[in-house]
Amino acid sequence: MKKFKKLICDTDDGSSTIFLPDLNEYYHSKHGAVSESEHVFIKNGFYFWMKNNPNRRCCNIFEVGFGTGLNAFLTNRESKFMPKINFDYSCIESHPLELAEVEQLNYDTYLFDKDNIFNSIHNSKWNLPVKLSNNFSLLKISSDIQNYNFELNTDIIYFDAFCYRVQPEMWSIEVIGPIIDSMNKSSVFVTYSSMNILFEMLKDLKLEVEKIKGPSNKKKMIRAIKNY
Ligand SMILES: C[S@@+](CC[C@H](N)C(=O)[O-])C[C@H]1O[C@@H](n2cnc3c(N)ncnc32)[C@H](O)[C@@H]1O
Fold first, then answer.
1. Which domains can be identified in the chain, with CATH numbers?
2. Which residues approach ligand 1 with their CB closer than 6 A?
3. Helix or strand or coil: residue 128?
4. 145-203 pLDDT, tens per residue?
5. For residue 108, what are the contacts with CB-CB under 8 A and spacing of at least 6?
6. CB-based burial of residue 228 (10 Å sphere; 0-12 exposed, 13-18 middle, 19+ buried)?
7. What is the rounded distance in angstroms from the CA atom of residue 22 to the CA atom of residue 184?
């Protein structure tokens, strides 16, 4: 993917996102960036896994497409309610944003970030794990996912790539297969997409796949559980 012009804009819930005019593509739903992330990743990924794995004391999360860092930020906020669980959050990004772009996003004020975590997320070095809070460490990997060698055993996958129209290669078995291989038993894969190609691929990979209610007026999203 080459570098495209970026515009910062507001979504319907008042939180900001990034728009790529050349691709006519947003980083989040224009109906609400924070509400989409909370619904797709936090409620249906993070809390779903917590409910199904009540005895686990550590949790490895992997995000595809770190982008604005919103999902890392929201996940860190929730981790504070679970001080007995250690979270290792890894995320991959091929085109990190410039700090000047990040500074125009309003997530810190929108979500009352009194500990300045959003800044810490963006100021932390790439490719080095950092402790963001007592029970949460962050590893931002600067790479194309196609060149990344999965060594982690993951519990939760946040798959937040651009849509199929813009980047069909991200929704291919070459990208998705190694991600699924990295997943532990009883782990969960969530994405905002409800695309049939993905649904069938995950089914072929022997995951228990469902289309569930999506955020706001998006009808469905996909969640898949790996039971082996
Ligand atoms: C939908 S946006 C990210 C949304 C992000 N999770 C957020 O909350 O801001 C998709 C992201 O995937 C990144 N991306 C595109 N191709 C990639 C690749 N091959 N490997 C890793 N990241 C990629 C883009 O640069 C972009 O930041």
1. 34-226 (3.40.50.150)
2. 1, 27, 65, 67-68, 70-71, 92-95, 144-146, 160-162, 167
3. coil
4. 999 998 879 999 999 999 999 999 999 999 999 999 999 999 999 999 999 999 999 99
5. 116, 118, 119
6. exposed
7. 38
pTM above 0.85, yes or no: yes
Residue whose CB lies within 8 A of the most ligand 1 atoms, among 3, 39, 64, for a mutation test: 64
Q: How far does the centroid of ligand 1 lie from the alpha carbon of residue 165, in Å?
A: 14
Q: What is the spatial distance between Cα 19 and Cα 50, in angstroms, rounded to a whole number?
A: 33
Measured distance CA(175)–CA(147) in Å, rounded: 10
pLDDT band at 218 (very low <50, low <70, confident <90, very high): low
Measured CA to CA, the distance from residue 38 to residue 211 in angstroms comes to: 17
